[in-house]
Predict the 3D structure of the following.
Amino acid sequence: MEAGPPGSSRPAEPGPCLSGQRGADHTASASPQSVAGTELGRHPQAVAAVLPAGGCGERMGVPTPKQFCPILERPLISYTLQALERVCWIKDIVVAVTGENMEVMKSIIQKYQHKRISLVKAGVTRHRSIFNGLKALAEDQINSKLSKPEVVIIHDAVRPFVEEGVLLKVVTAAKEHGCSDYDLEFGTECLQLALKYCCTKAKLVEGSPDLWKVTYKRDLYAAESIIKERISQEICVVMDTEEDNKHVGHLLEEVLKSELNHVKVTSEALGHAGRHLLQIILDQCYNFVCVNVTTSDFQETQKLLSMLEESNLCILYPVVVVSVHFLDFKLVPPSQKMENLMQIREFAKEVKERNILLYGLLICYSQDDQKLQESLRQGAIIIASLIKERNCGLIGQLLIA
Amino acid sequence: MEAGPPGSSRPAEPGPCLSGQRGADHTASASPQSVAGTELGRHPQAVAAVLPAGGCGERMGVPTPKQFCPILERPLISYTLQALERVCWIKDIVVAVTGENMEVMKSIIQKYQHKRISLVKAGVTRHRSIFNGLKALAEDQINSKLSKPEVVIIHDAVRPFVEEGVLLKVVTAAKEHGCSDYDLEFGTECLQLALKYCCTKAKLVEGSPDLWKVTYKRDLYAAESIIKERISQEICVVMDTEEDNKHVGHLLEEVLKSELNHVKVTSEALGHAGRHLLQIILDQCYNFVCVNVTTSDFQETQKLLSMLEESNLCILYPVVVVSVHFLDFKLVPPSQKMENLMQIREFAKEVKERNILLYGLLICYSQDDQKLQESLRQGAIIIASLIKERNCGLIGQLLIA
């Protein structure tokens, strides 16, 4: 059987599956797995992955094994699982963890709703761990959920940025080339294990720069910055109406567009029963700027927060919500408005529990067009900062532009 | 001649030279170069460094050559120069840059007050650039400031974290071992050039993990995080008096100590003509929490800002100043106090020009001890966030704990 080209041009970059695939109670979207099943019809029917994750990460210089080190409060291994899960033709993912980390791993799988994962006990060496994973796949146990695969991908738990294209290359090469003496001599040692215990073919394949391994503490820093950058590519400005072009929300949208290069800025109304907004949430936008105009205080922001809390968007990444309030400082001193707005601190504490980072932003509304533009520009800089940093220590603060 | 052990246990990590060495008008501290001259008496008398910096950085995926990419608004190459400059026994540093970047490089040397630097034109290849650097050192030109060195260190402009120990190993090995066939075969190619054109000995020496090269964009991210971490190791709490143990400044200091692990928290009074505080500034503390109690508004913060502006501390790294104000929210609503404190926005804009990041922090002062502790703890979290991120977009904001 020959493997075909990638069925989808969408890279398997970190980002959760659609909630249709992830959440049990949501059925609005088609299951990507069945769609992909048609597109990827020529892919091998039986691919599994084994992740040795029994290491202790002594080079990291931190007490936590590196696969469990948190990035944006989520363990590194969860990002790797997410990257593999997005590849629908990988049927089973077997993770080898030490006995003492078994419960931690189970709670990670539950908390981040990972699917198609089986756990086996890690061995004393990396080879033994891979062996245990392969054995679990090879055995035809009656109660096993696992099916014997044709190809097994062995993937480091600490390479979170693996893309579907590379995985496909691996699988294709394994099927086309078999394994040469060269691989056995110079390839990574686990090829030999794969050959010996799983009756599959294997071949050393070139990776991409993204496939790099988190080894040192500096790699954790880099991974965090890359992840932050990836989830900061889109901002949705939410307002009560889309009709009025002179709406301050639209003015802010325009300034955001001109100030923030490389960021997609869209706007959406809360009004229409939130149909479009729901789609934006489903499409995994992680940044919202909610403009409160017609209602006093936080009514619009609260509507948005409810929608976000009902969705599964916040499971994998912290979602930033900036609650924007316009005020003519000449008519009303900001202090007066702030009195009311201070309740944002309580909201922020509440929604932090659901992985939502809420900040307040008071923009000076001036009749003078130039002054208004300056305030909007300042507001855009603050919004960009909040989205870029995702700083938990500053939630509930009321910033002034 | 045999090279001795490192003369100083202090690593040559990024951090500016003392201002005695750096600023022309400051003579209070002894010149580190003359002190080190005694300690490092057994070091080779004539060591120079050549930095090929003519690359275009195509793997970085950004238009700016990587050696000029900014980290905390300062170009990467300046960090590398700083690391070499701190090693007092390196007498000359020759940088090879392309003609089109010559002016940029000159302005970097001027802005960050680098010393002992000479510029030569880069060649079309890395080898040619090294050749040009070595030639400048080898020539006995009448007008040349350069002296012919015994040993030349060839160092990538994009390895900013080189430590004195590694450089010493390189020099020692070069003098002790000469160059073997093994080096010529497997070592980096520039060994051959060094041998051929500089009449010196050379040897491949093992580096440290810190010596890594900034190649990809992710390396820039990692470098930025490492630098931020390094300059966030110490916080100085500045207040009007040191006598009163019940002073809110001391309470805040205690909470900072208990909340922030791995950070050294000290306190200092502004009062005593600022003598001690001046020493803390000279010792390169980059983070200040200024408690305003006896005076209204910003008098104490302004005194501190003046001291910082007069020092050379801010030349190499952005310095964080958090202006703290205590207020009993029950007696005075925060809004009333805020009216006055809003002028911090103007101060912040001004001092940003001098590389000082100023933020305001209003801490709720309560007679209830438990409530006060909670506010102080919240304040400590905010201070930690501000210091960790060094976010330019949020300067001049008044945060509430």
Observations:
- Residues 281 and 311 of chain B are 8 Å apart (CA to CA).
- The domain at 42-227 of chain B is CATH 3.90.550.10 (Spore Coat Polysaccharide Biosynthesis Protein SpsA; Chain A).
